[in-house]
Specification:
Blueprint: H1 5-20, E1 30-34, E2 39-43, E3 57-61, H2 77-86, E4 92-96, H3 99-105, H4 119-125, E5 128-131, H5 139-149, E6 154-157, E7 161-166, H6 169-189, H7 198-204
Parallel strand pairs: 5-6
Antiparallel strand pairs: 1-2, 1-4, 2-3, 4-7, 6-7
Helix pairs in contact: 2-5, 3-6, 4-6
Length: 216
């Protein structure tokens, strides 16, 4: 399948921007973007987001995750394609690993943490999902992530990192950066941190758009 060089360059530039925001290190993290109803772009396996070029971008089918250009996509293509198959409202999927958020992803109390400590979490992201630990790249992880992302825009993968979805590169960058800020606040404030009250959250997110979820 022939893809315009411009599309590959845009994807690579978006990945480099995410790295400049400190959302991943070295070859950690991965990114995908919907091209159309049938096709997606995915970061190539073991490539570094900070140095990504058009040559490091794989073109794959969304339906069966098959590479169409001979490049090996990220080992996590299973959940990238799964989310794009399931969420019609999503165009970009990002797996990132920021310091504070990943520290909390490794916390024994992960399932008890209320992340809505600043308005940006309630307004831009909404409730945070939690995915139990599964081997990276495994079908079990892909299935667990896809299930969690049916009704969340951001989820914690226990002892692994985070996944965030959105309509554009700017959308996922903003969500990831605000989430890392909230996690830094939680870590620094400890037991003294007071989450937003339910009434405040309702005022910030009074008409959350329903998810457009498809069958996988």
């Amino acid at each position: 399948m022939d893809i315009a060089q411009e599309k590959l360059e845009e994807f690579a530039a978006g990945a480099r921007r995410m790295a400049r925001y400190g959302l991943m290190r070295c070859s950690s993290g991965n990114l995908s973007c919907r091209l159309d109803e049938q096709h997606m772009l995915v970061k190539a396996s073991r490539s570094w987001m900070a140095d990504l070029t058009a040559a490091d971008v794989a073109v794959c089918r969304i339906a069966d995750e098959v590479s169409l250009d001979g490049k090996s996509p990220s080992v996590e293509i299973g959940f990238h394609a799964g989310v794009l198959r399931t969420r019609a409202d999503v165009n970009v999927v990002l797996h990132f690993q920021t310091t504070a958020a990943t520290a909390l992803a490794c916390s024994r109390r992960l399932n008890e943490i209320d992340f809505a400590v600043i308005p940006e979490i309630a307004y831009y992201i909404g409730p945070i999902g939690v995915v139990p630990y599964n081997l990276p790249g495994s079908r079990g992880l892909a299935e667990a992530v896809v299930s969690a992302m049916k009704d969340h825009d951001l989820a914690m993968m226990a002892n692994h990192g985070q996944i965030v979805v959105g309509k554009s590169f700017d959308d996922v960058i903003q969500k990831a950066v605000f989430f890392e800020l909230a996690c830094e606040i939680i870590l620094r404030g400890g037991d003294d941190i007071r989450p937003l009250a339910p009434q405040a959250i309702a005022q910030l997110r009074p008409q959350a758009a329903p998810r457009r979820v498809r069958g996988v």
